[in-house]
Amino acid sequence: MNSRAGLFLWNFRQFSTLVPTSRTMRLYPLGFSRLKIVYSNWNPRNLLLSDFGNGVQSSIRYLFQDALIFKSGDNFQTKGIGTETVLTVDRLLCPRRLSFDSKHSLDPDDGLKKITFHQKASNEDVLTKETKPTPVNYKKLSQECSSLSDVLDTFSEGPVFPSSNYFSAMWIIAKRMSDDQKYVEKQLMFNHPAFNQLCEQVMRESKIMHYDHLLFSLHAMVKLGIPQNTLLVQTLLRVVQERINECDEKCLSVLSTVLEAMEPCKNVDVLRAGLRILVDQQVWKIERVFTLQAVIRCVGKDAPIALKRKLEMKALRELDRFSDLNSQHMFEALAAMNYRSIILLDECSKMVTGNIHGCPFKVLINILQSCRDLRYHNLDLFKGIADYVATTIDIWKLKQVLFLLILFENLGFRHTDLMDLFMKKVIADPASLNMKSIIRILHVYSSLNHFYKCQTSEFQEVMATSLTGYLRHISSENLLNAVCSFCLMNHFPMALINPLLQKDIINELLMSADERNAHKLRILAACLKLDISCHNAVDLAPPPLPSTALYPNVKVADALSSLLGEGYFSKNRQLPHNYHIDFEVRMDINRSQVLPFSDVVTSAADTQRVAVLCVPRSAYCLDLAHPRGFLAMKMRHLKVMGFHVILVRNWEVERLEMQDVVTLLKTKLYSAEAFLTADVNLQSTC
């Protein structure tokens, strides 16, 4: 009898630290004290973080298992706390505990005798097991309930540990709903009288529930749209930080997914830093590829380069175990970490290309967006995706194909078959396009400088006619973008151009802080003057280009000096209409002889001006054979000004020896008929 009295007094002291003195509490058979469920005016903001930390003492988490603490029927009343059932702490309901064997004992602080507890079946134990509640199953609960409010009603009728499962059930139910229904249900959830009680209960249990339950509840809260700056979410983040050493591979995957979905804040940043340390220690122990990819997405772009390389090596080791889904998701994971692993991307590209059929549209978009972010250009991958879309174009919506074409344009990739098919569909059904779609289509086709045989003119007319119908609704900047695209394609619909030539519109565009508007106005002015000789182009008067220091290609300059000699070419030539050329050479009309640059030419008809342009990779499409829109327009305008244009590719020149550069320029400068003569002239100048 003395033993049981001593045990009772010791446990009562432990629980007294948990019970707020200002509230009436009821003891439930859950291993902790909890407020009686009464729909009151409880506000989460009134629950201070410090109070929460002091309320759940570490002692309750280390209570021995299967020990009968209060006996039913004693009907004792102390400080407003009434016992209505047996209070037990058991293996299932209180997972965070000390392990006691049959010989362990407890020594109270008040000098009571040492009490030894033996794990024996007794009448009290039988009574305890009969009164234990069955833990709630969130999967079963999500099947039985049809709305978020139903879950909260179930919670209010009889809360069962762990309360985190109620949030998990609500998230499963919410995933089945449409966006509109989900919005309404969330509002009902926030206004439900039991919602505040559930939030308080989760905070109370956060330090004693299983770690994976804690993470699942946090994940459900984030997905349900509970604000991140609330006490509930921030409290769980702090508890997750404190218990991060309990993280196994499953918890690592959930934690990575949660952090990826959350906005940066102090607790999130600290937790992500802790996750990086944990991953650095356990990366070689990760067995599932899905977990590895979740971790790669979560560590962030500012993760240490050593950690990124370690994750890369781990992924390369697991390549043989990659499924089609793993290879598709690897692009997005590397982009999230901002790490371009060429070997890993090449291998995943092969797997994606080999299993492209049936690949969802969203996955294709994610792959292309990731390639753009990583600046990864794989012609075989892009061609495989474009071939697949072109083959199955009838099952795709126009907007979907347009989205893919926009990404291809960002990557500089031009797939002629897909663009031809899309052009045909646009010509056949222009009414299906809205204003934004028309502007984007014009940008893609003008930027990639794509033309399709005899249908190009029809396509341009259809686009111009469709856009004219939106003149009352289109903004000045969007109209300028569309007209600039038409100029690059050498098409000039005056119904769209004339509104831009008004002084108030021009002033509005020039007053904006966007320098691109001035650049596009220069393009429009040059096209109106050179392509169609429009007299209104004088009224446009865009501001001149700011003066910048220009550095011609030194290797090309040395090669021209070796080939032609000093005084036979000019560097950094600035031309009318804001055009610049790297080198100018003057030759006879047959391009068989180079003329001294200082000589006064008596007749322009006897002279051929040659413009040598040193162009970067970005001026070409990805195949490096087709010039993009601006370069094509510049070449067209230089020819109008009387130049013969020669393109020298910078990246090729850098790889060549000087003698090979001289031979390349010699081949490009002289005509085929005069090549032998040019060789003789070259020897005489040397």
Automatic annotation (TrEMBL):
Q: Name one Pfam family in it.
A: FAST_1
Keyword tags: Kinase, Mitochondrion, Transferase
What is one GO biological process annotated to this record? regulation of mitochondrial mRNA stability
Q: Which domain of life does this protein belong to?
A: Eukaryota
Task: Indicate yes or no for the key word Mitochondrion.
Answer: yes
Coiled-coil stretches noted in the UniProt entry, renumbered to this chain: none
Q: Which residues form the RAP domain?
A: 610-667
Question: GO CC annotations?
Answer: mitochondrial matrix; ribonucleoprotein granule
The protein's matches in InterPro entries, at most eight in alphabetical order, are given as: FAST_kinase, FAST_Leu-rich, RAP
Location within or outside the cell: Mitochondrion
Q: Which PROSITE patterns match?
A: RAP
Q: What GO molecular function annotations does the UniProt record carry, in alphabetical order?
A: kinase activity; RNA binding
Q: Report what the protein is called.
A: FAST kinase domain-containing protein 2, mitochondrial
Annotated source species: Callorhinus ursinus (Northern fur seal)
The gene name reads FASTKD2
